[in-house]
Amino acid sequence: MKQAEIIQGCKKGERNAQKAFVMTYSEFILNICLRYTYDQHEAKDCLQETLVHVLKKIDQYNEIGSFNSWLSRVTVNKTIEYLRKYRKLKILDLSGESELRIDESIHLKIEEETVLNYMSTLPEKYKIVLNMYIVEGYKHKEIAEQLGVTESTSRSILTRARQMLENAFRDVDEKETGRKSQVIFLKKK
User: Is the torsion defined by CA of 169, 84, 46, 136 positive or negative?
Assistant: First the structure.
């Protein structure tokens, strides 16, 4: 079945289309869930909740934008909702914090998988904001709305998360090369 057929069939409540939807999009959804939970069992729980939610609310997809983008947003929202519910996710308002200034230095190239592995070691709120901003491409306004914080808090959390990762990578690089390198994280296009 093609994507349009799956979507239309799901909107009509057709079982074959729903089955095709689950078969086609489960891995896509699970990968997003894993980026936020870093736990296979929790990611599978989020997958289940997302699948049920999407199949109930698929008529809200207006077919103007990309279905994958819509599905990604719904998945992120459901995963954050799950984390709030089961992990008691709390984010404090840090709106008075100053931004990190990056000086000129040597740049270090790091594989995306390595970055994701290091991200998994960060405290919950830092992982979530980093994922939403760098991996998913959310803007600070959207992150703030999702997490119930101010835009400046979102920026502060992102800055602190980047600083933690930069320090971790700088320490590893210094051990390997004997010199400190600068690490810069760019937003995924």
Answer: negative
Model confidence over 23-48: pLDDT tens digits?
999 999 999 999 888 889 999 999 99
Options 1.10.1740.10, 2.102.10.10, 3.30.70.20, 3.40.190.10; CATH of 3-87:
1.10.1740.10
Closest listed residue to residue 185, CA positions, set 167, 170, 160, 165: 165
pTM of the shown model: 0.64
CA distances from 154 to 19, 36, 116, 185 (A): 38, 16, 19, 16
Q: Please give the pLDDT value at position 189.
A: 41
Backbone angles phi, psi at 43, to 5 degrees: -65, -40
The CATH code of domain 92-189 reads 1.10.10.10
pLDDT in tens, 76-90: 999 988 888 877 654
